Predict the structure.
Amino acid sequence: MIKSIVIVGGGTAGWMSACALAKSFGRAYSIRLIESEEIGIIGVGEATVPHLSFFNKTLEIDEAEFIRQTQGTFKLGIQFKDWARLGDTYIHGFGTLGHDLGAVPFHQYWLRARHSGRADELSAYSLNATAAPREKFMVSPSDAPKNTPLADIAYAYHFDAGRYAQYLRRYGEARGVVRTEGKIREVRLRATDGYVESVVLENGEAVSGDLFIDCSGFRGLLIEGALHTGYEDWTHWLPCDSALAVPCEKVGPPTPYTRSTARTAGWQWRIPLQHRTGNGHVYSSKFMSDDEAASILLKNLDGKALAEPRQLRFTTGKRRKIWNKNVLAIGLAGGFMEPLESTSIYLIQSAIGRLVLMFPTGDITPVLVDRYNAQASFEFERIRDFLILHYHATERDDSPFWNYCRTMDIPEPLRNTIALFRDGGRFFRNAEEMFAQVSWVQVMIGQRIMPEGWHPMVNQMSDADLYAFVDHVKSVVAGCVDAMPMHQQFIDRHCKAPAK
C-alpha cells in the first residue's frame, strides 16, 4: 500500500505534481519534495496551451492573481513566420474555426469558396487568428450571445516559469507538502524486486518512499540513472538538439500570441511577458554552430538582452517506460518535445492527470503500469507527428537543414494523415490525441498542404448561399474582434502585475 510519495526535483514539473496530488488526495499520503537551489531549473518554458487553465481551476487558483504573480500575459495562438516559404506568415489559433454546418466542418465550405476566388485567408474566419495580430484580447463575458465566437474564447498563457514554480511551492506547502533542500548522492534499490527503496542526500539522510516521482530534468536521476529504463531517440525526425535562451527588454505592449520564426537551421521563439520578453533559438548542431546560433538570436531581439544566452542540449524523444517499477518520470525526466507548439507544460499536466486517475488502489500492479505507459506513448507519438508536420511540410530549399527536413522519411501515421487531407480536406482525430482538427487544419493549410477537393456534401449548397455563408462568418468574426479591447488594456484593467 502506498503511504508516502517522494518527488525528486522541483521546478514546474515537481511543484505541479506536488500540488495536484495534495489537492486530489488531501493528506491521505505524505508528500515530500526534494530539490536543490544550487541545481536550479530549466525555466524557459514560458508559453502554454489552453489546458493549463483547467489545471489551475482544479487547484482553485484565482486567474487574475496567478497572472499578476507570474508577470503573465495571454495567448490566443502561435504565429509562424517563414516556415513553408520565406515570407509566409500564418497563425495557429486556439478555439473554433468558422461555423460548422451539420457533420461538415467549416473548412470544407471554405475550400470550395476559395477555389472560386471568393474566400479570404483561413485566419479571417477564426476569432483568435484575427484578434491576435490586432493585439486584441478578452475572456468570454458571462452575457456573450451563445451563437457568437465571443461565447467561448479559448486562450492560454505566457508566464515566468520560475515564478510559477514559486507560486505553486507556496500553494503546496500550505497543503502539507514537505520540501527538503538538498542534493541526492545515492539511490538505493530493494534487493528483492529492484524498486527504489530510498534516496540518500549529501548530508547522509536517507529518504524512503513507496512511490517516487522523478522530476530531475534531462538526466532522469531515478528513471534512467538508477533503473536504466532506456530512451527512444527521435532526432532523425526532429533534428534540432540545441537551444539558446535569453530574455530581453520589453518594447511596446505585449502581443497576445507566441511567435515562431524559422531560421536557416531551426527556429526562434518570442514570448512577451509583462516585465520582459522571452526569446530563444532552437537549432540543429549538425547544421549550425553555437556561435552562429547565438549571433542570429541576439541580432533578432526586440530590445536589449538582459543576460547572456543560456545553452541547452537535448535529445527529442521519450523514455521507453514513463512508469517503471515504483518510479514515474514527469517533465523532462520522462521525455522532451521541443517547444514548437508549447507542449512541455501540457505533458506535465497530462502525466499528473493520468496518475491521479490511475493511482494504485493497493500495490503498484503491472496491468496499471502497462496501461499508463501505453497511453503516455500514444500521446507523445501523436504530438511528435504534429511537430514533424511543421518541419516536413515545407517548400524551403535555401539551406541543408530544410532540404533534410523536406525530404526525410516520416512516420507512416503522419504520412497517411497528410495524404488524406490532401485528397479531400479530411482529418479524423485519433482517439484522445492532444491536437484536434482545428489545429491540424490550420497548420496543414499554413504549411501549404492544399486539398485537391472538398466534401461532396458542400456541393448541395448553391454558389450564392455558399458565398453568403462564408461572408457572414467572416463578418461575425470581424465584428467580434472589433468589440474586443486591446490586450494591454485588458491586463491593466484586470491583472496588472505590481510595480517592482
